[in-house]
Amino acid sequence: MSSFPQAEVFEVPAEVKKKALVSELSLQFYKLGWLSGTGGSVTLKVHEHNVPRQNQFIVMLPSNVQKDRMSPEDMYVLSSMSPPPTKTYPHNPPKCTDCAPLFLKVYEMCNAGAVIQSHGLDACFVTMINSSSNEFRIRNMEMIKGIQGHGYHDELVVPIIENALSEGKLVESPTKAIRAYPKSTAVLVRRHGVFIWGDSWISAKTQAICYHYLAAAIKFHQLGLPY
Prior knowledge:
The chain folds into two domains: 12-97, 3-Layer(aba) Sandwich (L-fuculose-1-phosphate Aldolase), CATH 3.40.225.10; 99-227, L-fuculose-1-phosphate Aldolase. Helix content is 29%, strand content 19%. The protein contains six helices and ten strands; from the N terminus they run αβββββαβαββαββαα. The strands form two sheets. It has an eight-stranded mixed β-sheet, sandwiched between helices. A two-stranded antiparallel ribbon has the order 3-5. The termini are far apart.
C-alpha cells in the first residue's frame, strides 16, 4: 500500500474553464484571420448543473485589447458585468465590447451556446459580390452540409445587413434579419464581417469554418462560374 497521502481533488469551476477556452479560441481565430488586432469577438454561455437559466452567465472577450495575447483573466463575465483587471502599460484598459447587447439578443432569440464575431476578409468581400443585395445565396457546395439544418442539395441563404457607425448600434437590424431568416445561423454585415452562432462552441466553430469556406463564391464570381 502506498505511503503517499491521497491527493485532494479540486473541481475547476465552469467559469474558469470557459475563460481558458475563450482565451485559446481567441488565439486560434486570430491565426485564421477571423480576429484582427482588437477586432472581432468570441463569447460562450456557461452552463452549470442545477443553476436556473436566468442565473447562468456568459464569458466574453473584452474589446480594446490585442486578441492574440488574451489570457483567461482578461475575460468579461456578463452576469455581474465585472471587468477584468487592468494591466500596466503598454496594455490598453479592457472594456466590454460594444457588441454585447447584440450577443445577448442572439442568445435570447436563438437559444445559442456560443457566438463568434468574425472580421474575416472573405466574409467582408462576399457582401460586395452584389452590393445591393440583402442576401448571400449558394448551393451545391460540400461545406453547406456543415451548416445546421442544411444538406448538399439545399440552398444556403444568409441575410446581409448594412454596417453602422458603431457596433453598439448593430442590434435592431440583426434582430430583424434573425426573425426573417430563421434557418440561418449567421448574419453578414456589409463591409464589416459576420456573426455566427451555434448551440455550443463546437457547433459555432464548425459552422464558422464552413461559412468562411463558402466565401469561395468570391472566386467563382471572378471566374464567371455559377454558385
